[in-house]
Amino acid sequence: MAIATVANPTTAVDTSAATGHVATMSLGKALNAGLRQAMTNDPKIVLMGEDIGKLGGVFRVTEGLQADFGERRVIDTPLAESGVIGTAVGLALRGYRPVCEIQFDGFVYPAFDQIVSQVAKFRYRNEGRVGLPITIRIPYGGGIGAVEHHSESPEAYFAHTAGLRVVTPSNAGDAHRMIQQAIASDDPVIFFEPKRRYWEKGDVDTDAPLDAMPLHRARVVREGTDITVAAYGPMVTTSLEAAGIGAEEGTSLEVVDLRSLSPIDFETLETSVRKTGRLVVVHEAPVFGGLGAEIAARVGENCFYSLEAPVRRVGGFATPYPPSKLERHFLPDADRILHEVDRCLQP
Amino acid sequence: MAIAQLKVPAERLTAWADYDGLVQLISVDGQRTVGCPHWDLVADVDALQLRDLYRDMAIVRRLDAEAMALQRQGELGLWAPLLGQEAAQVGSARALRPDDFAFTSYREHGVAYCRGVDPVDMLRMWRGSGLSGWDPARYNLATPAIIVGSQALHATGYALGLTLEDAKSAVITYFGDGATSEGDIAEALGFAASYMVPVVFFCQNNQWAISEPVRLQSHASIAQRGRGYGIPGVQVDGNDVLAVLAATRLALARAYAGQGPTLIEAVTYRMGPHTTSDDPTRYRSRAEEEEWRAKDPLVRLRALLHSEGVADDGFEHEVAAAAGNAATALRSGVLDMPNPEPAALFEHVYADPHPLLEAERDAYLQYLAEYDEVS
């Protein structure tokens, strides 16, 4: 696969210098290591979810944690997503720091009421007296040949909801650090995990201080001069692949990994756009009403006089997620990204 | 083959609230438990019908094995095997009339088979060629629900429609032990009881929700859960096709007679993995699997056929040949299944034209044409 030729994102431009032990591991293993680290440091952290105990989760992200931390801290729940989040609220009120796993993106909707009506509004409703330090982990996105409800990208629903923080790592190093930062946050954090990247390996600096790279800061993962490509989660690897092809064809793409979807680090993004004068936003979620729309609007407002061309968006179509034999058409790939890049360069 | 309908005496319709035990009508060693509660509801099942039930179960098992093999060979994206649940599915589905409607989860291949669905069509979704495989109205069988428990509300609503029309049909909905924890199941039981609609809640308790044992979902039997809603619940040996048939017949008779919903818990076992992505050795013991292997529903029915002297080598050869033929047809049908065209991505999102969707479709097809990818 072409992605094998892409430079490891963690070796690209990074504001945090490696300070200690660097290990190579998959994104899934990095999350596991990050969870382990957080649980070791804070006894109030409890994990909850379906099949997360003995099985270690269907993607093995919590593998071995119940064996090491016990059934009181790694809790298999009944099959009830609303129940998982609703009881996490109660645990948080008792002083715990719950980390909930929703097994697949398409299973989060039974919990949507608890997340949107309760979790997101709790601090506001209590006028700041009570907050909910809950982390909700959601594997998301397609590209794994799954059946219905297992490949969706629902991040815009949550980014649209005030009171929630929404983040998504694209690589192992970020996964390891960002999961710990999310858990440490006193606000509820929706933590989207790019499931098709679980097996991609990267460098993880297990000793780096957590604050070396703030949770909500975007990162330039490849420098370029002709056009900025903004992506997050699973599409960062795809965008880097496009940048590699573009370089061979004489086009210099700068790739920005947004990392955080609420808030969005517009400072980093706009600095890049002012330099290149062009922007393409990439996500798997449908383009209409997606995060690309918000980004295009803001960048249009703030960088209008730096833009050489309209901001363009690449993403899923205005259809439900299709059967797996059609998903390669639904999902943006390097070619579709470069097609929009060309349209930006020759408007 | 259809099982003959049984006229259930009116006085039987309220009977089972009095009986708390597990209904078992074929003993583990293959004898009819004549005189046990509910045995009268299957007393009419003769040699021919017993053989039909066995043939159905054997064919369904063989189709399931073929689908597993197809997945392992890369021809299906995923498969959720029904191995071990043949009696629960065939025994209940064969009690249905054509005008009854069934709402299933994703493991009820045996139910779909009994409703007449071509097994090749069942595999379309698992191959990733489409999101469904048949017209629900043709078989009175809904597209399988992947979101567990959601279908119980749909069944209840369909049954409410029957009630509003005074139609004398019934609805059955299948779900697993895991799904009983979902709010949708609780809401379905509540609605069904409130409106006294003709729906049968058929829970296949196969002991495992992926890695989670049933005791994590419920400390009491699932059958007991109906009581609080005023819905009679019965627990049957789900590996005993006659017990399942008896309970479903009675539940349907209650539904036809306007007596409202019934909850059946069929106690069975998922002998295989949750899906082809699962590895049960991580969470359950070999000893437990062996214990349940001894309760294999096909072995049990075969023992009954032999103890009643209604099966011989000729019959077994005939069944094996039928199952083999079904598997061969399934394999070739799956391998011949056409891949969907890119334009199919944009079909069936709305009933009426939608300008955004049309614009995206046109732009994408033009893009493909530019890059010569359409073929």
Characterise this structure.
The complex is a heterodimer of chains A (347) and B (375). Helices cover 34% and strands 20% of the residues of chain A. Chain A is of the alpha/beta class and 347 residues long. In chain A, β10 (227-231), α8 and β11 form a beta-alpha-beta unit. Chain B is α/β, with parallel strands linked by helices and 375 residues long. Chain B folds into 2 domains: 10-340, Thiamin diphosphate (ThDP)-binding fold, Pyr/PP domains (Rossmann fold, 3-Layer(aba) Sandwich), CATH 3.40.50; 341-375, no CATH class. Chain B has helices at 47-72, 86-93, 109-114, 119-122, 124-127, 136-139, 150-164, 183-195, 214-217, 241-256, 286-293, 297-307, 313-335, 355-370; strands at 101-103, 171-176, 199-205, 208-209, 212-213, 233-237, 262-267. In chain B, α7 (150-164) packs parallel to α8 (183-195). Chain B is globular, with a radius of gyration of 22 Å. The model of chain B has no long low-confidence stretch (mean pLDDT 95). Chain A binds chain B through residues 50-51, 53-56, 58, 76-80, 82-83, 106-107, 110, 145-149, 287-288, 317-320, 322-327, 329-330, 335-336, 339, and chain B through 77-78, 106, 125-131, 146-149, 178-179, 181-184, 209-212, 216-217, 277, 282-283, 339-340, 342, 344-346, 349, 354, 356-357, 360-361, 364, 367, 371.
Give the structure's gist in a few sentences.
By secondary structure, chain A is of the alpha/beta class. Helices cover 34% and strands 20% of the residues of chain A. Chain B folds into 2 domains: 10-340, Rossmann fold, CATH 3.40.50.970; 341-375, no CATH class.
**Elements of chain A, N to C (H/E):** EHEHEHEHHEHEHEEEEHEEHEHEHH
**Could you say what the CATH topology of the largest domain in chain A is called?**
Rossmann fold
Largest interface: A-B, 39 and 44 residues
Major β-sheet annotation of chain A: 7 strands, mixed
State the shape of chain B: globular
What do we call the CATH homologous superfamily of the largest domain in chain B?
Answer: Thiamin diphosphate (ThDP)-binding fold, Pyr/PP domains
Strand residue percentage of chain B: 5-15%
Whole-number count of domains of chain A: 2
